[in-house]
Specification:
- This protein has 9 helices and 14 strands.
- It is α/β, with parallel strands linked by helices.
- The strands form 3 sheets. The chain has an 8-stranded mixed β-barrel with strand order 6-7-9-10-11-12-13-14, surrounded by 4 helices. The chain has a 3-stranded antiparallel β-sheet with strand order 3-4-5, with no helix packed on it.
Length: 386
């Protein structure tokens, strides 16, 4: 999703960490080590104390039982009946566990660094119960809310093909029982130029998300229709490519959100739109957007107003965001039931929640389109009516 200078959209790559933040990175790794080793020490001490107390209790119970039966000496002298562990032995076991855990953690970090993993990728591996992203203030950790709808994708079901050192996929497919159950799509705007939709169809593209309009992010917030929308929508329909649409939003009030929704509804009425109608919420890369001053609650109100209006018009509403957008800019728990289009460029789907479409690259190539194009995988067939 690309705009010109007057309407720049946010690039959804994770922000890069500057060199002058290397000291912070080192402190993060040191903090990880300290936290892990301290937790391991506490855990080991706790369990060793429990073990010692349990075995002492067993000894006391058996001695009491034997004494009452008159067989105390005979019972105690049975080899290996029970063994009391001394404090010294407990301390030795605790130390062995401590150093083993520390060494394993250090080896894991070393292996990841040798493999060229970024600090962000390492942190994500070390904190699987949290989602982590970077913004201008540093690394942000968000607990995963397991009360929300989660996706049920299995790693073995993905066929992810990557090229180059950046690990960005060139093709993503998903299989269940060796059967392909996903669909390959593109999203385009006027910045992709004139598209040969017959070639796009022949290239195996299953669906297209086409931009209808965007709102400028300056103080006026003017709505700008995409000059190529009608041509793209008509040609995609003619070539039997299922179509969804999106608008890049910079609405700062519910009233503006409804204005955007009504514009989209009026523009798509002549066309066959079977895939979702999407509100695109992003930051402005390298600049300030109109919605930056909004609270997560206010921005979520805007998203829900748009989606409800689209649903009332008979279409499937959807929200497009990257990781920070979903869990940092919005009240994510209020978005249950809203279809989600997730922008994340990496060789895995780093998102535990329910998601319908994953935009996995902005540098794809498709016959019939000059230059690069955004690539997507849909886990749903919106053409199929229940």
């Amino acid at each position: 999703m690309t705009l010109n200078e007057s309407e720049t959209e946010n690039v959804v790559h994770e922000p890069k960490v500057k060199k002058n933040r290397m000291t912070k990175i080192i402190f993060y790794i040191m903090a990880i080590l300290l936290t892990a080793t301290t937790a391991l020490s506490i855990y080991t001490t706790y369990n060793m104390n429990i073990l010692r107390d349990q075995m002492t209790d067993v000894a006391a119970m058996d001695t009491s039982a034997s004494a009452s039966s008159g067989n105390q000496t005979e019972q105690i002298n049975i080899p290996d009946y029970y063994t009391l562990i001394s404090n010294e032995q407990l301390e030795a076991v605790k130390n062995d566990s401590y150093y083993l855990g520390r060494d394993n953690l250090l080896e894991s970090i070393r292996t990841m660094m040798e493999n060229g993993d970024t600090t962000l990728r390492m942190l994500r591996a070390l904190y699987p119960e949290q989602l982590i992203y970077v913004d201008s203030s540093g690394y942000i950790f968000k607990d995963i809310n397991k009360d929300l709808a989660m996706n049920d994708f299995e790693d073995k079901g993905f066929n992810i093909i990557t090229e180059g050192e950046n690990g960005i996929p060139t093709k993503v497919e998903y299989y269940e029982d060796d059967k392909l159950v996903s669909y390959t799509g593109i999203d385009v705007s006027k910045h992709n130029g004139t598209i040969d939709w017959a070639k796009v169809k022949a290239a195996g593209i299953d669906f297209a998300m086409i931009r209808v309009a965007n709102r400028g992010y300056g103080s006026e917030g003017k709505l700008l229709e995409d000059d190529m929308f009608e041509k793209n929508a008509a040609a995609a329909n003619q070539n039997k490519i299922p179509v969804g649409v999106y608008i890049f939003s910079e609405a700062i009030t519910v009233e503006e959100a409804l204005e955007e929704a009504n514009l989209v509804i009026s523009k798509i009425e002549p066309y066959d739109i079977t895939y979702p109608v999407v509100i695109d919420i992003e930051e402005i890369a390298g600049d300030s957007g109109r919605n930056e001053s909004l609270t997560p609650a206010e921005l979520t109100d805007i998203v829900l107003a748009f989606c409800n209006r689209i649903k009332d018009a008979g279409y499937t509403p959807m929200l497009y965001c990257n990781l920070k957008g979903f869990i940092g800019m919005l009240e994510f728990e209020r978005l249950e039931g809203i279809e989600k289009w997730y922008a994340y460029y990496g060789d895995e789907l780093y998102f535990p929640y329910d998601v319908s479409i994953w935009q996995y690259s902005s540098s794809g190539t498709v016959d019939g389109i000059n230059g690069t194009v955004d690539l997507n995988i849909s886990f749903k067939n919106y053409e199929k009516k229940d």
